[in-house]
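To close the section, here is one more complete example, presented without commentary so you can practise reading it yourself. The ligand is zinc ion.
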Amino acid sequence: MTSFSRTIARLLFVLLIALYLDAQGPTSASAPKPTDDEATLRAFAAIHPIDVHVHIFKTDPAFQKMLERLNLKVMDILVMDDTNHNRKQLQPQINDALGLVRSSGGHIALCTTFDPYKFDNASFAADAIKQLDRDFANGALAVKLWKNVGMEIKDKNGQYILADDPKFEPIYKDIAAHGKTLMTHQAEPDVAWGPPDAADPSWSYYQENPQWYVAHRPGFPSKQKILDARDHVLANNPKLRIVGVHLGSMERSLENIASHLDKYPNFAIDTAARMEYLMLMPPEKVSAFLIKYQDRVLYGTDLDLDPDANIPDTLTEWQSVYARDWKFLATGETLTVQGKQVHGLNLPRPVLRKIFRDNAIRWIPGL
Ligand SMILES: [Zn+2]
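Output:
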């Protein structure tokens, strides 16, 4: 081989290596990225947080380890949903959830529910009460009323059933008599009734779940009508603690939330799946609201762990949500939310303690 052809051969070799490496992409992309959330999660864990709103269908040693590492207690909320095969049957859900609670070493609590699809049965309320009392005896701390009341289930006359129907009253009285808490998810974000809005934090949910997008559906109850029914329950049951989950479905108006909290001393809210609405509001307004109503806001996420969930992905998601929420409420760091720069509220420590822990214990005794 001449020195010229050796040079050509070397050049070709280098070129081939370069092409090969290029085809492989940057090698660091496949390696796990070191998380900058570690310090944030340590601060979160130090407050012994309680997440009052999760949906879990199974556990796993790595999941349990995460709960322990974060000093985290979560409340698993059951719902009856006839469109979801995991949520169609009530008793198997209760049995599974009680098993999760028992195996969790105190890290998981239960919010049970009752079967609103049985609304037209003559023994509807009596059956619900019997079942709830059994669940309370087994340790359930709260009861969920889901959005299918108001937005899905119709009575035998074809009318949507609403939360203030007299048939529900004995159930509410029973929950209050046992000192338990009612978690109400009534109605949906405004955008469910409005024009499509890609900028709304909930819009992608309706693209994936069009059955809950109700704009222009003839005969469908207005959001106001559904929330008015919820308010009647608040007024009729002053001894019943009611947590309006998802910011009480008043996610666009802190003024509206504030006037409800002022009017109904038995009312509190959770932040589940609506934190982004707070993040996108003027920070000084949100700070002033959270400081004024520091005894009435419970931290919740709506995170889930589905039966077929991939555990490593789930742990990554849960921890990134906890880190994001802590950064927003507890630090002055900058976050990117829906492409916007958002500044953390840096709330005072005593307020953080209430939102992330103490309010949960006060509003949901037993947590
Ligand atoms: Zn939920």
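Once you have examined the tokens, check your reading against these statements. The CA atoms of residues 152 and 355 lie 32 Å apart. The radius of gyration is 24 Å.
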